Amino acid sequence: MITHDLLFIFISFATIIATYQRTDGIVCGTSEIEGQIAEDNCASTLCADHPTPQLKMSTKLFACDFEVFGIVQGVFFRKYTQKQASSLGLRGWCMNTRDDTVKGQLEGEEKAMNEMKYWLQTKGSPSSRIDKAVFSVPKEIVSYSFKDFSIRR
Predict the structure, then answer these.
(1) Residue 45, C-beta contacts closer than 8 angstroms, at least 6 positions apart
(2) Which residue, among 87, 78, 93, 134, has the nearest Cα to 115 in the 3D structure?
(3) What is the SS3 string spanning 58-112?
């Protein structure tokens, strides 16, 4: 029993010694297997001199058209729409129509597009009244068509 306890203490102590702090403040661990030291369990994607490759997920881009009905002209709706879209990293445009609606186009990642759609349906500018918002079916695009989100006149 004592041998097992001493072995456990020895292994624990060796593990503590094998764990060391790198110059960048990241704690990494090493282990020795059959005489070879292998570094593993690094807490950062980049440990000082041993960068760990990280897979970058490709983000899909989508585009859709929208039109918002209600009291959306003369209430700074386009300006607030531009501010909201830009804060979400979306690109595209919006404009007033002769039918007293605001229409436009959105381009960006799916999550941001969904947040913007919700905003267009429920919030808008403080003085606006949204009766309904209509969106086209989002289509996947390979690259952006716009450099930012603008207001068209």
Answers:
(1) 51, 52, 54
(2) 87
(3) CCCEEEEEEEEEEECCCCCHHHHHHHHHHHCCCEEEEEECCCCCEEEEEEEEHHH
Beta bridge mates, 8: none
Q: pLDDT digit string (tens) for 79-117?
A: 999 999 999 999 999 999 999 999 999 999 999 999 999
Q: Which residues of the chain have pLDDT under 70?
A: 1-58
**Nearest CA-CA partner of 92 in 133, 11, 149:** 149
Of these residues, 41, 91, 96, 153, which one is catalytic? 96
Q: Which residue has the tokens 């905003």?
A: 119
* Catalytic residue status for 129: no
Residue 148, token pair as written in the block: 């930012």
Backbone conformation region of residue 105, classed left if phi is above 0, alpha if psi is from -120 to 50, else beta: beta
- Known catalytic membership, residue 41: no
What's the pTM value of the predicted model, to 2 decimals? 0.63
Q: What is the pLDDT of residue 58?
A: 61
Alpha carbon distance 94, 79 (integer Å) = 9
- Catalytic residue, chosen from 41, 78, 114, 152, is 78
